[in-house]
Amino acid sequence: MDIENQRRVKELAEKYGAENLVVILGGAEAEASGLTAETVTAGDPTYAGPLAGVQLGLSVWHIVEDEIKAEIDPEVYDEQVGMMEMVLDVDAIKEEVSSIRKQYSKY
Amino acid sequence: MDFAVVRGVSYVLVHAPSMLVHMGTTQTVEREANPDSDYLKELPKHLRSYSECMAYPPNQTYIGNITPDELGNIPRPWHENPLAKASRAGARGEIMPEDEFYALMKIVDSFDLVVLEEGFTAQVAAELSKDSVWIEGDRERLGAGAPISQIEELVSSGRAEGLYIGDKLVGCVKAAHERDKNLTAHVMAENLAAKASGTLALRHLVAKSGIDAADIDYIIECSEEACGDMNQRGGGNFAKAIGEMAGCVNASGCDVRGFCAAPAHAMVNAAGLVQSQVFKNVAVVGGGATAKLGMNGRDHVKKGLPLLEDVLGGFAVLVSANDGKSPIIRTDAVGRHKIGSGSSPQAVMTAIVVDPLERVGLSLKEVDKYSAEMQNPEITEPAGAGDVPTSNLKMIAALAVKRGEIARGDMGTFVKKHGMPGFAPTQGHVPSGVPSLGYLCDEISAGRIERAQIIGKGSLFLGRMTNLFDGISFLIQKNPGKCGSRDGAAAAGMAGVSEHELRKIMADALRGAAQTLVES
Question: Is there a contact between B384 and A29 if contact means CB atoms under 8 Å apart?
C-alpha cells in the first residue's frame, strides 16, 4: 500500500474514529490485497509508511466479497465490477482478505 | 487524406547495473533512510553480468531477435534459461554495455557536464563496438578525459553524481547550476541518460529504416523525464536535443508527456500530423529512466531472484506518409479515456478498447492482437503486480463475454490467441503498448494478421494533480494501398481495396455507363 494512501487512511481514522471506517479494497491479486488488508489492520508489514507499527484494526473487505456485493445495486455492480469479477481469482482474494480480517480487524 | 504508416521501429536497451545501485530510487531512498539495511548489503550479489543480461530471453525479444511467440515457448523462469544464440546486435537495435553508454552520455552532453576519467575514456574509445551507431564527430566529442583526482573531488564535494563501473568511479555528471534544484547533478544525470538512450534509439531507427536523417521533419519525445530550470521545470525540449545528436538537421520537435501512456499519445499526434500533411516524416522517440532501475529490487532480492530491472529501455518509431506497403495507423479508430469516462477498470477498458472498434464497425474478435502494458511478468509477479499483459487480455476477453461475442468458457482461448507474453522492462513509458509495434508490423506485412490494437495506459495520480486514470489506443492495419484523395473515413471503409482494384472498379463502372448509352 503506497505511503500516500496510508497517510489518508490514518488521517481518516483519526478524524472519524476507527470504529466508523470501512475499507473496501479493489486489488487485483490475493497476495497484494492481503498485504493492504494487513496494513490497515495490523500495520504496514514493510515498515515503510505512516501505518508502520500502527494497529488500526479497521473493518476491511474486498469489493468481490459476497457481503459487499449484496450491498450494491446489481446493475451498478455489473457495470463497474462485472468485467473484473470474470478476470480475478475471486476465491483466492476472498480467502486471503477474510483471513486477515478475522485475525486483525477489531470492528 | 491517406492514413499515415509505421515505416520503421527501433528498440534499444542499456545494461546499467551500476546506475541501478547508485541512481535507482528504490536504492537511493533506502540509502538515505536506512544506510545499513540488509537489502543494500544483499544487493550486489543479485546484479547480473552483461552477458547474463544480454542472453536474457525477454531482452532478446525486445531488440527483435526472437518473437514474443518464441519467447512464450521458452520455459520459465527465463532468467534460468538464457538464449543460446543471443547477441548484442538486434534486428531492431542493440543491448549496449554500461561503459559504452557512459561514453555516449559524454558524446551527447552539450554543456561539458559529463567528466570521464582519462584511462577509462581511452579504453572505451578503443572498443566502441561496431554493433552500435556511432556518427561522425562522436570521437571528438568524447574527448580525452580528465584525471581521477578531479572527478573524486567533484563527487566528494557533492557537486557531481558519480558514474561507476562496479565499485570503481570512472566519471561523473556535474550540477549545471549552483542553486537550481532542477539542474542538480542528479537531475542532470537522469536527463542525460534519457537523452543518450533516446539518441541511441533514434540513430538505430535512422540506420535500420533507411531514411536520411535530414528527411525527418518533426520529432516527438515521450519519456517520463522533465528538463528545464527552476523557472520552468518541464520546459523541454528533449526532442530537439536528441534530434541534434542523430543528424536530424531539418527537424523541429516537442515533448509529449502522459506517464506510461505517453508513447501512445505521441503516436496518435504523429499520425495526425502526417495524415493532415503538416509533415511527411515524424519520429516518435523515448529514452530510458534511471530512477526506475531496480524499482522492485526489494522483492527480487527477498525472493532470491537476480535484479531483472537492470536495463534502461528506449525506442523510436518512424511515422510517415503512406508508402503503399507499411501498416497504416487508423486514426478513425483512436480510443481515449475521457475525463468523464469513470475510473473503474471496466469503464477504462470500454473507453479505450471497445468504443473505437464499435465506431468503425469492428468486433473485439476482429482485432487479431492486442498490445497493452507489455511488462515482463517475471519482473512484476514477484512484486505482487501479477502478469500485467495477461490481465489486460483477460479484461478484453471478459468484455467480449459481456458483449456476447464469445462464451465465458472461451476466455482462455481468446487470451492465448489475441495476446502475447510480456517482455518489456519496467521503464514506465516503455512497456505501454509500443514494445510490440515492431513485431506486429512484421506480422501484418507477412500477412499473418490483419490488424492490431496498441493500448497505452497511464496512472496520472502519481503526479498528485488528479485522480483520473488515462489511456489512449490506436489500430494498425494491413496497408490497402495508396488511397489518393479519399478521406480517412472512406479509406477505413475501403480497407483491403488496393489502388489497382479501385481503378478496376472505376473502369467497370465507366464501361457499364457507356454500355447503357449505347443501348439507349
Answer: yes
Mean pLDDT for B228-247 is 96
**Structural domain tally of chain B?**
2
Say whether both B316 and B378 belong to one domain: no
Distance CA B223, CA B428 (A): 8
Q: Shortest Cα distance from B224 to chain A (angstroms)? A: 20
Contact between B368 and B450 under an 8 Å Cβ cutoff? The reply is: yes
Residue B274: CB atoms within 10 Å = 27
Q: Considering only alpha carbons, which residue of chain B is nearest residue A89?
A: B391
Specify the residue for cell string 479484461.
B395
Inter-CA distances, A62 with A24, A31, B405, Å = 5, 12, 29
Q: Does residue B296 belong to any structural domain of this protein? A: yes
> Strands, E, within B337-401: which ranges?
369-372
Supply the CATH number for residue B488's domain. 3.40.47
Residue B283 phi/psi, 5° resolution?
A: -100, 130
Which parts of B446-498 fold into alpha helices (H)?
488-493
Interface of A with B (CB under 8 A): 4, 28-29, 31-32, 35, 79-84, 86-87
Contact call for residues B58 and B78 (beta carbons, < 8 A)? yes
Question: What is the residue range of A16's domain?
Answer: 3-104
**Cα distance between the two ends of chain A:** 21
Q: What is the pLDDT of residue B34?
A: 93
pLDDT tens, position by position, B147-169: 999 999 999 999 999 999 999 99
Instruction: Sort out which chain B residues have CB atoms less than 8 A from A82's CB and list them.
Output: 346, 398, 402
Residues 6+ apart with CB under 8 A from B180: B229, B230
Report the residue of B344, B350, B406 to disrupt the A interface, i.e. the one with the largest count of A CBs within 10 Å.
Answer: B344
pLDDT tens-digit map of B1-23: 799 999 999 999 999 999 999 99
**ipTM of predicted assembly, 2 dp:** 0.77
For residues B295 and B361, state if they share a domain.
no
B68 and B179 assigned to the same domain: yes
Expressed as residue numbers, the domain containing B393 is 332-500
Is residue B91, in this structure, part of any structural domain at all?
yes
**Domain final position from B275, B298, B320:** B320
Report the number of distinct structural domains present in chain A.
1
Do B297 and B339 reside in the same domain of the chain?
Answer: no
DSSP assignment of B15-77, as one string?
A: E-HHHHHHH-HHHHHHHHH-TT-HHHHHGGGGPPPHHHHHT-HHHHHHTTSS-HHHHHTSPSP
- Whether B344 and A80 lie within 8 Å, measured CB to CB: yes
Evaluate whether residue B520 is within a structural domain. Answer: no
Distances (CA, A) of B448 to B6, B317, B325, B368, B498: 17, 22, 15, 9, 18
3-state secondary structure of B207: helix
B313 shares its domain with B348: no
Which of B276, B294, B320 marks a domain boundary?
A: B320
B303 at A interface, C-beta within 8 A:
no
Let me know how many helices (H) and strands (E) chain B has, helices first.
22, 13
Give the bridge partners for B324, in sequence order. Answer: none
Residue B417 CB coordination number (10 Å): 13
A28-32, B181-185, B265-269: which range is least confident on average? A28-32
Percent of chain B with pLDDT strictly greater than 90 = 88
Identify which of A45, A31, A44, A40 has the alpha carbon closest to the alpha carbon of residue A11.
A40
Mean pLDDT (whole number) for B297-316? 97
**pLDDT tier at B489, thresholds 50, 70, 90:** very low
